Amino acid sequence: MKIDIITVLPELLESPFAHSIMKRAREKGLLELNVHQLRKWAVNKYGQVDDYQFGGGAGMVMMPEPLVNAIESLSAQTPYDEIIYLTPDGELFNQQAANQLSLKKNLLLICGHYKGIDERVREHYVTREISIGDYVLSGGELPAAILVDAIGRLIPGVLNDETSALFDSFQDGLLAPPVYTRPAEFRGWKVPEVLLSGDPKKVDEWRHEMSIRRTEARRPGLQGDQ
Q: Is the pLDDT of residue 167 over 90?
C-alpha cells in the first residue's frame, strides 16, 4: 500500500511513522509513506498557502491553488483510490472504515489547518472526508497519523501474528474481552480459572461472553452503530 500525505507541518508526522509497527511495515516494504510539504506548491516565494476568507471572519483558509497543484502533481504519478480530507465535519472514523481503506492500494491524505481548506477543493477533488471524533484539533496531522496506524496494521504481513487484528475491539461490533498475563495470582488477585484450563473452546466461549458483557456495560448500542 502507498499513502501520500499533504501537510504544512511534516515535522509532526516524523515520530509516529518512525517507530513500532509502522516502522516495521515500512521496512518490510508493505507500506510506503510519503509526506509532502504543501509549501512546495506555494503561490509565492514567501511560501504562502493560506489567505483571509471571503465574507470576513476570524481565521485563515488554505488556498485552492497550492492544494490543487499538489493534488494534481501527485495524482499524475499515482492513481489514488481515495483522496481523503481530515476534517471535524467528516464521517466518523471507525474500525469498519479502517478495514475498507486497508483494502485500497493508493491513498492521498490532506491535512487541513487554520479554518480549513477552500470548499472548491472539497467539491472537486476530495473523494472522502473523515473525522476522528467530535472535537477540533490544531490540524489534520494527528488524525492522519491515526488513520495510517489503524489502516497500516491491517495490511497482511504487518503484524507478526496474522490473526491478531481479527480479535481487536470493534472488529465484530464488540469490545475486546479482558486479558491477563503471568503471574496467575498477583497480590491475591487471580486470573479466571477458565483461562488456565487449557480448553480452547471454553476459553473462546468465555472471551465472547466477556466481550458481550463489556460492550453492554461500556458501549451499549455499539453493534447498532456499525
A: no
